[in-house]
Design a protein that fits this description.
- By secondary structure, the chain is α/β, with parallel strands linked by helices.
- It has three domains: about 270 residues, Alpha-Beta Complex (Spore Coat Polysaccharide Biosynthesis Protein SpsA, Chain A); about 70 residues, no CATH class; about 110 residues, Jelly Rolls (Sandwich).
- The chain is built from twelve helices and 29 strands.
- A hairpin with a 2-residue loop joins strand 17 and strand 18.
- The two termini are about 40 Å apart.
Length: about 475
Amino acid sequence: MIIPVILSGGTGTRLWPVSREAHPKPFIQLADGQTLLQKTFLRAQALPNVQEILTITNREYYYQTKEAYDKMPSTETPVVSFLLEPCARNTAPAVLIAALKIAEKYGDNAMMLVLPADHVICNLSAFATALEHALPLARQHKLVTFGVTPTEPDTAFGYIECDEDHGVKRFVEKPNKTAAEAYLCAGNYLWNAGIFCFTAGTLLAECRMHAPDLLQAVTNCWRASQHPAWNYSAAMELDKPTFTALDNISLDYALLEKSAAIAVVRATFDWNDVGSWDRIMKLYPPDAEGNVTMSDTLLLDSQDNFIYSENRLIAAIGMHNLVIVDTPDALLIADKNQTQRVKEIVGQLKVRAHETVKSHRTMHRPWGAYTVLEEGPQFKIKRIVVKPGAALSLQLHQFRSEHWVVVSGTAKVTNGEKENFLAINESTFIAAGHKHRLENPGAEDLIIIEVQTGTYLGEDDIVRFDDDYGRHQEGTAA
């Protein structure tokens, strides 16, 4: 019995402007139409003897994650469950809480396979074979990590210095270029893939020995998160006060670098940790001029470029060795050898409290999505899509009024004490201070154009009275 544990939490600052706080890198869609998260889920689903797939993610990403899984081809899917974090606290707290849940439900001998949601592995057969090599070691009470043979002196990865057979001498954090070149020449260093296999009982026992304070704090959070209504339901929200108090520390630092019960399996599968634009480039073959394009492009006398655009033609003349990433509200242009520095751009944007750090013009919600088409002083225009059968919360706004025009589907509108239905080309007006709700009673998407006017148009001007998705009374989304 195997329980894959998918870790889906990193914001992916080096993949800005596509990756944002509200739409992090696990949701980045690749050229085949699948997201990194979906690829990880399918990889877990394809393994033999999978009893349950447990995903650990931020509570704000739950509905988006669930929708991503629901779009996958239907099979005899194992149980799918979620642990929802109120904030990011790195891999050690996440994996330990998962171990407590799994041990309580299945026993200490239940096998955990920890999978980050930002990896691309194409050879699933080789991945399954590597897992077969890891399982006997895990049953011998080892904490098994997977190591990838380096193909270049990459400074973005951690390294494992290997002993004979499956032994581990030490873990090395991201080295400088000189050290990475020496590791590549030595031949006994592997990239640390961040994929782990162990029984829940072994992980908890080793943590009890080497990080008892962390384990106690995680246990307190686990107990505080449980309530009678949960009873192993599909999604469990972790207790905010106790989880926020946990150390922000990786499993490597907290435990693996201290434990003597470490073993490594050399990965024979292909592996790409998609953490930056130079890693995305390597997923696709270049054309005859060395260009990799993920958009409609027209290139003249341009070589060795990477170009990504969501909805616009990109034309370039005489451009060489550039990364060009275009989104509706932000454009990145960088030298291909400087892509690791994108996080510096994000850092400066955070200091300026720039909106492009947090969100895209299109924002996904449990009920559908909205896109900001245009905005200016005291007005904002949105395109709103509501899924069949879905409804926004019953709410009001203090500072803005809204005009709705239906362009597709049928809308059920609550406006104060009145309810009515709107068809295509019909409209309504919602005055500031009025309770209102938008619902889609039909079998196809409802699409409306919303024009907001008022003295303040921030997304946090909302008071909820009833919500189908359990969101707080006041928040940042309809």
